[in-house]
Design brief:
Layout lengths: L3 H13 L28 E8 L2 E11 H4 L5 H24 L4 E14 L4 E13 L16 H13 L17
Antiparallel strand pairs: 1-2, 2-4, 3-4
Helix pairs in contact: 1-3
Length: 179
């Protein structure tokens, strides 16, 4: 069983190998790979990965047109398919980099956000979480931590709250006029 650090380093390298023009024979599944690289207008899209405990968070961003987002089309299925193609590429590239296989299991559906810049131009941002299998034991981020400094801080505050300094000659409230 590999440690979580080894798996994260391998997945990070596999994702880094997806730069534009890395391997023209194997498709990642991005829109920037379609068409001629010089003659056709290129669509700006890409992805990144982040890690949180035993999960990998895949983020995908791309330019889209209103025709693609229109309610009659299967836009959400298309984004899910693209995320699936990216995961296939990452698994294959992880195998090339480390010589081992990795299991990435989807956790829920993709979170898809479409924003507009004009009547024609829009962009989509999608994120999806994947559980990393075979990465060893990791601590959940939802478990509260125990504060080891708490008792020392309490002792210090108790010392200052009960005693007054030796050079303090003021009464209980020095601002109150006397009699």
């Amino acid at each position: 069983m590999a440690s979580i650090l080894d798996v994260v380093v391998g997945l990070n390298q596999a994702a880094a190998n997806a730069y534009d023009g890395y391997d023209t024979e194997n498709s990642i599944g991005l829109k920037r790979e379609e068409g001629h690289p010089i003659l056709d207008s290129r669509v700006m899209d890409g992805f990144s990965v982040k890690f949180s405990a035993d999960k990998m968070i895949l983020s995908y961003q791309s330019e889209v047109t209103m025709k693609e987002v229109h309610p009659r089309t299967q836009f959400e299925n298309e984004v899910e398919r693209t995320l699936g193609d990216i995961i296939k590429f990452i698994k294959k590239e992880y195998n090339n980099v480390t010589g081992k296989n990795v299991n990435l299991t989807a956790v829920g559906d993709a979170d898809i956000l479409v924003q507009t810049t004009s009547r024609v131009r829009n962009w989509v941002q999608a994120t999806k979480q994947y559980k990393i299998g075979g990465a060893g034991d990791t601590e959940s981020l939802l478990v509260p931590s125990t504060d080891k400094m708490e008792t020392g801080i309490k002792k210090f505050l108790d010392l200052s709250a009960t005693k007054r300094p030796r050079n303090d000659k003021a009464g209980k409230n020095p601002d109150t006029p006397k009699g």
